[in-house]
Write a structure and sequence with these properties.
alpha+beta; FAD/NAD(P)-binding domain; 20 strands; binds flavin-adenine dinucleotide; globular
Length: 460
């Protein structure tokens, strides 16, 4: 049987980022990455399944200021990679203007307050309620809008659209490989067991052993965590996100809507697609979708297996249902997927708030598009956790990655690599990494954050 230092399950942007970091910045002797699909980044990392945004926290009004700070440094690592790495795929990213749009007096007031909180963190952001200025950035936001409706924006030039699928392919392509550093496609992990100090990874082709296992398998990381006896106090709320697409381009960059602080999923936004620049995409919606993987019906049963119903589960559900903003979002989103009335409801309630002149015949529900955000619910706190989660057990890590997971892929990968290098007594070239990224200034902040993550505990 082949024994590896590390086995990574999942070839999305999170698993491939770790493979890249271990291969290029540590002296690891052997590693294996196992992916069930025929290529990398085909599930949530695929450009059609996520919103393609490099989230910095500057226009995401649902983040707390602390969450915005953490998102900023995590995304700066990826920004550095995109700007300073030679030989990346063409069209892997594009720079763009971005903004968050408030519509109506109460949103305008909330946005103004948010701006005051965010300005010290993001010196470059601008606030304005002047329609002529807004028009200069995004003419269609103003065109056809009732003059009595107040609007305001926080605007930034620091926007990026990223094709995270191409990024995951590039991570593998740019990794140093040898016969002990393997990548397997078309190989599905069926079971994982731990004995004699090693993980046995049972796939549909062969069994592999590893000293450390890292599950970066999207919602399936959580499924395996439960099977191995972790995550007692956690369940997942899978939130599906669909998109509407238009037949022409309405925006220059990304236009997000204001969202209340603490809501776990981003507001509906409009932007041009990175690979279809002459269209505009509106979304994602947020619907409860009881599956672990989008368009994979069998994963409904696997989702049920992750639910161990108890009193705390019920209390958590009741507590979540008490939040009227979350309920309103989930229930209105459900109607957006319905035939005929869904499109009208979406255009009236969401799309025209951004582009008032949009006509019904210019927009359609995009088929086969959109992914699943595995939102983590803490059954002790009876709350949905904001952002990504990591469960660290005995020589095993499980990454669960709702948004802004893809933006934070290098930070999440570094956190895993840091743990692995300690456990296996490896050298990790941190200075070289941050120098290559052109981000020496954030190294200390990132390492401080990583060192405070509660390894060996459940949730971070
Ligand atoms: C609607 C939506 C919008 C989003 N927008 C953004 C955004 O704008 N910006 C952002 O940063 N993030 C966004 N996200 C989140 C982002 O898409 C994810 O954080 C990211 O793609 C997660 O990457 P991953 O590698 O963990 O998961 P995935 O890309 O899903 O990869 C997991 C991999 O594991 C493989 N796998 C699973 N089970 C097995 C098995 N048994 N054996 C072998 N392989 C297996 C799968 O095939 C898959 O390739 C969004 C998500 C959604 C759903």
């Amino acid at each position: 049987m082949e024994i590896y230092d590390v086995a990574i399950v999942g070839g999305g942007v999170i698993g491939t980022a770790l493979f890249y970091l271990l291969s290029n910045y540590t002296n690891i002797k052997s590693e294996i990455l196992i992916e069930k699909n025929s290529d990398f980044g085909m599930v949530n990392t695929h450009e059609w399944n996520n919103a393609q945004t490099l989230h910095f926290g500057d226009i995401e009004t649902n983040y707390t200021v602390e969450k915005a700070k953490e998102t900023k440094v995590s995304s700066e690592m990826l920004e550095g990679f995109l700007l300073n790495t030679k030989g990346l795929s063409r069209d892997i990213f594009k720079r763009c203007n971005k903004m968050v749009l408030a519509v109506g007096d109460s949103e305008v007031e909330a946005l103004r307050e948010k701006y005051e909180l965010l300005k010290p963190v993001f010196s470059y952001i601008r606030y304005t309620d002047n329609r002529d200025i807004i028009k200069r950035f995004e003419p269609y936001v103003v065109k056809g809008r009732d003059r009595s409706e107040s609007i305001a924006i926080i605007q930034s030039d620091n926007g990026y659209m990223v094709n995270f699928r191409l990024l995951s392919k590039d991570f593998i392509r740019l990794s140093r490989k040898d016969k002990n550093k393997k990548v397997l496609l078309n190989t599905k992990v069926k079971d994982i067991r731990y004995y004699d100090g090693l993980y046995r990874i049972y796939t549909d082709k062969a069994v592999y052993s590893a000293k450390i296992a890292v599950l970066s398998a999207g919602s399936y990381s959580f499924y395996f965590a439960k099977r191995l006896g972790y995550a007692d106090n956690l369940i997942i709320l899978p939130v599906g996100g669909n998109f509407y697409r238009t037949t022409k381009r309405f925006t220059n960059g990304k236009i997000y809507r204001v969202e209340r602080t603490g809501i776990p999923f981003a507001a509906v936004h409009a932007d041009p697609e990175i690979d279809m620049p002459n269209t505009t995409r509106f979304g994602p919606t947020a619907t409860f979708s009881p599956v672990l993987e989008v368009r994979y019906i069998r994963s409904f049963l696997d989702y049920l297996m992750t639910l161990d119903f108890n009193l705390d589960t019920i209390k958590s559900i009741i507590n979540i249902l008490r939040d009227k903003d979350i309920i309103e979002k989930l229930s209105s989103s459900m109607s957006y997927n319905m035939p005929i009335i869904g499109k009208k409801a979406f255009v009236d309630n969401e799309a025209r708030k951004i582009i008032p002149s949009l006509r019904y015949d210019e927009i359609y529900l995009a088929k086969g598009v959109g992914g699943i955000r595995p939102q983590i619910v803490d059954e002790k706190e009876h709350k949905i956790k904001l952002g990504t989660g990591k469960i660290v057990g005995e020589q095993i890590i499980f990454n669960i990655t709702p948004s802004p997971g893809a933006s934070a892929c290098l930070k999440i990968g570094l956190s895993d690599a840091y743990y692995i290098s300690k456990a296996l007594d490896l050298n990790i070239e941190l200075e070289k990494l941050f120098k290559d990224l052109g981000k020496e200034s954030i190294m200390k902040d990132i390492l401080d954050r990583i060192s405070k993550e509660s390894f060996y505990n459940n949730f971070m």
